[in-house]
Amino acid sequence: MSEYILEMRNISKSFAGVQALKDVSIRCKPGQVYGLVGENGAGKSTLMKILAGAYKADAGEIIYKGQRREGASAGDVIDSGISIIYQELALVPRMSVAENIFLGREPQRAFGILDLKSLHERAAKLTARLGISMDTSLPVSELTVAQRQLVEIAKALSQNADLIVMDEPSAILAGSELDQLFRIISSLIAQGVTIIYISHRLDEVFRIADEVTVLKDGELVETRPIDELDRQTLVKLMVGRPLDEIFPQTDHEQGELVLVAENVSTDTILEGASLELYKGEILGIAGMVGSGRTELARALFGADPLTSGTVSLVGEEGALWTTPAKAIESGLVLVPEDRKSHGLFTSLSVRVNITLPILSRLTRFGIMQSQAERAIVEAARDRLSIVMASSDQEAQYLSGGNQQKVVLAKWLETDPAVVILDEPTRGVDVGAKFEIYRLMRQLNDRGIAIVMISSELPEVIGMSDRILVMNNGRIVGEVAREEATEAGIIELATMAGAGAN
Amino acid sequence: MSLAKTRINPALDANWRLRAFIANYGVYIALLVLLLAAAVLTPKLYAVNTIAVVMRQASQLGIVAIGQTMILLVAGLDLSIGGIFIMTSIVVAEVTNGRDEMVIPAILISLALGALIGAGNGVLVTKRRVPPFVATLGMLVLVKGATQAYTRGVPGGFVPEVLDIVNQSWFVLSIPLLLWLGLNALFIFVLRGTAYGRKVYAVGSNSEAAHLSGIPVDAIRISVYILGSCLAVVSGVVLTGYVGYVDRFIGTGLELDSIAAAIVGGTAFVGGRGGLLGTIAGVLIIQILSTMAILMGLDIEVQFIIKGLVILGAVTLYSVASTEE
Questions:
Q1: Which domain covers residue A410, as residue numbers?
Q2: In terms of domains, do A61 and A113 share one?
Q3: B59-116, pLDDT tens digit by residue?
Q4: What are residue A273's DSSP bridge partners?
Q5: Which among B193, B209, B325 has the least Cβ separation from residue A343?
Q6: Are residues A114 and A127 in the same domain?
Q7: Dist. CA B25–CA B41, nearest whole Å
């Protein structure tokens, strides 16, 4: 048997006439971590879906544990010891941790009766193997996102996985949760498990990968051991050009006050949040997932009704809003975190997506002025360099970065005074990230104030003028950019029993 | 842009184009094939009289199907239509009691009651988050029950003679057909050319994103249910004139046929995709199939089997065409 547990040789695949993968080969030894990086649309997910048996390659072969694999179904692949943990976790919320881990493979006694005792014992053994303690009888809906991900890993182990693919596992994690994930990965490779780790966060790749494979436009750029790479080189390989300055800077004085929120609470974890926002600045909001960041954004926007407190724009006296429609009218917009489910109309055209909030401007007696509409969409396409076949193309066929640009374009057309960005660069590749940062600076120069929520601390520190840190539904501290360090923010964000400052 | 072009693989591109073609134009081709088949199997279908009858009947279904399509577009469903037909029929007979001059007031009263029923459906679906299937089924039973309680099982009154006009044709033209065409023209324009139409599609495509885009999601949904009920009233008036007396079972099955016509015409059950042109083709397919079956002397059971097969065939085709590999 060869020294490789997996070899994918000369894999090619096309969809709807577009070549998604062209002649890509990778190979993995047991007990190693392989970083798989590349921009969105580079073919990472397609390659992994072929490995999972979800897609069939047009050409090429897969050799797993020394055997050539032929037409395996997704079930066969799992049985053979390959587990894939997708970004969108596939758990049943109402079922317990143990039931989720053994879903479809529950231990049974005679006549198909569930053996609940053995179910929980085996689940507890698995979580112990991961070095975590968790009540396996809790329903998954009670768990944090990070804990849910651990359940997915336990599920993979229960399937006796020798090869685990993690598709952007860190996108939903922050701080200590990430450390925990890395500890678990270390213990898994010590047990001989192979990990393929897909991530947009290069720091993580450098931290845990033994070898890195870079894909670009469906083709293999290079595979190199991590110690022969540095950050600059890796970015260059991924993007095809160097990114000298990741976070574009501008110099500006603090502007006038534009927005005041006082003692805001909603029927969520959010409690007593107060903040002030000034013209032309970026206010960063840091904190763990579940600390109330998204809830704060929704409260400011009027998407969740306030149970106490007020939000108001300076100069619009008495302009209080209780609905997104009124917030948009007053000049405040929200670009939500979850692009696919909250931001984009995937079955509608790019044109319809972009002009939706400004229909009243584009209609006369309720009738669309299609000339004016097309002009606006063309201008937006040029300004944000949105890549699309035509503005009548359905939004679902755009790449992730371009979808995000469509959502941004939609809001910029409303000519807002305040833009709230909730995780603006999540799932966006390095090149598009840079374009989004630049766009944010352009908005600042126009005097637009930005509230940016992000789990990526380098991004928060690199882009924000001031940073508010949230913990357990409250704002627990404000850090000026000059004083901001990752360690300091994490400390505030994870301090137990933190109250209002 | 040149990058995107160089990556096109001609063979696969053809496959993809075929799928898109089926998804967009499949229903019109199916209609064409059916018309060709009729030329061979039932040439009588092409007699002027037959065409006139087919179009009058298609209009009864078609007017309801406009509303049903719009309700499907906001990811809803309306099963209460059958109750609205009966309500309309009784109101027309009771209010007019055969007097022609009372037709307009009777129609206005029916429209008001219909709007109330539609608003009830809409409020249940939006404010109380009752699934549309359950809410409108409950409304159907409620309205049917209310009409029976009101008439005590023996509907009174007479249908005014003036309504017999719906049974007359001039060549193939008739009042129902003109109504159907006019309402289609109106609502095709509303869906494509107005802000309201955009909002209807947006709500059906992604209601949370629509909410966050400042669209009054609940109000749009409720308004579409009201529209659907009012269109059902219009169809109910036509049906009442067609039957000529108060019938407790008037229009039975049209609620399901209207859903079938929309689905066959390419409107998605999950909302946000489809439109009225497809529904027109769907209505014609269903109506022509029924007429052909009658002309061929097939039993009613066989007609149902054929109708069922056509619906299943259509949705299977759409799902195959839209499946991303």
A1: 344-414
A2: yes
A3: 999 999 999 999 999 999 999 999 999 999 999 998 888 888 889 999 999 999 999 9
A4: A264
A5: B209
A6: yes
A7: 24
Identify whether residues A289 and A397 lie together within a single domain: no
Residue in A93, A21, A16, A115 with CA at minimum distance from that of residue A59: A21
Q: Which residue of B has its CA nearest to A20?
A: B7
Q: Could you give the CA distance from residue A293 to residue A269 in angstroms, rounded to a whole number?
A: 10
A466 and A349 within one domain: no
Q: CB under 8 Å, gap of 24 or more: what pairs does B102-105 form? A: B102/B160, B103/B160, B103/B162, B103/B163
Q: Does residue A244 lie within any of the structural domains?
A: no
Residue type, A16: A
Going by C-alpha positions, the residue among B45, B30, B79 that lies closest to residue B282 is B30
ipTM of this predicted structure: 0.79
Task: Name the closest residue on chain B to residue A353, using Cα atoms.
Answer: B202
**Could you give the CA distance from residue A211 to residue A203 in angstroms, rounded to a whole number?**
14
In the block, residue with structure tokens 């001039």:
B170
Report how far residue A414's alpha carbon sits from residue A301's, in angstroms, rounded to the nearest whole number: 14
Q: Where are the domains of chain B?
A: 29-323
Q: Residue holding tokens 């357990």?
A: A472
**Chain A hits for B273, Cβ within 8 Å:** 347
A contacts of B220 (beta carbons < 8 Å): none
B49 contacts chain A (CB < 8 A)? no
Angle between helices B81-96 and B103-126 (to 10 degrees): 150
Asked whether residue A393 is domain-assigned, the answer is yes
Give the count of beta carbons closer than 10 Å to the beta carbon of residue A56. 11
Give tens-digit pLDDT for B168-223. Answer: 888 889 999 999 999 999 999 999 989 999 999 999 999 989 988 889 999 999 99
Find chain B residues with C-beta within 8 A of A341's C-beta: 206, 208-209
What is the CB neighbour count within 10 angstroms for residue B319? 10
Query: Within 10 A of A478 (CB to CB), how many other CB atoms are there?
Result: 15
Q: How far is CA A83 from CA A60, A187, A216, in A?
A: 21, 17, 24
pLDDT along chain A (501 residues), means of 10: 85 78 91 86 85 88 88 83 81 87 83 84 86 84 82 86 86 73 89 89 87 88 89 78 61 80 89 90 87 90 88 71 84 84 87 90 87 91 84 82 86 90 80 82 89 86 90 89 81 63 38
Q: Does B40 touch chain A (CB under 8 A)?
A: no
**Model pTM?**
0.76
In a domain, A46, yes or no: yes
- Do A405 and A494 belong to one domain? no
Query: How many angstroms separate the CA atoms of B125 and B102, rounded?
Result: 35
Given this model, what pLDDT does residue B6 score? 32
Domain boundary residue among A414, A442, A462? A414
Same domain, A200 and A264: no
- Residue A322 is part of a domain; what is its CATH number? 3.40.50.300
Specify the amino acid at residue B301: E
- Report the amino acid identity of residue B215: I
Per the structure, the count of domains in chain A is 3
Q: Position of tokens 């924000």? A: A464
- Write a three-state SS string for A386-451: CCCCCCCCEHHHCCHHHHHHHHHHHHHCCCCCEEEEECCCCCCCHHHHHHHHHHHHHHHHCCCEEE
The Cα–Cα gap between A26 and A165 comes to: 13
Q: Are residues A379 and A424 in the same domain?
A: no
Distance between CA atoms of residues B34 and B50, nearest Å: 16
Phi, psi of B20 (to 5 degrees): -60, -40
What size, in residues, is chain B?
Answer: 325
Same domain? For A361 and A320 the reply is no
The tokens of A55 are what?
């897609």
Query: Structure tokens of B251?
Result: 């229009």
Residue A248 lies in a domain: no
Q: Which residues pair with B170 in a beta bridge?
A: B173
* Interface contact B209-A342, CB threshold 8 A: yes
**Chain-chain contact of B216 with A325 (C-beta, under 8 angstroms):** yes
Instruction: Decide which of A414, A443, A465 is a domain's last residue.
Output: A414
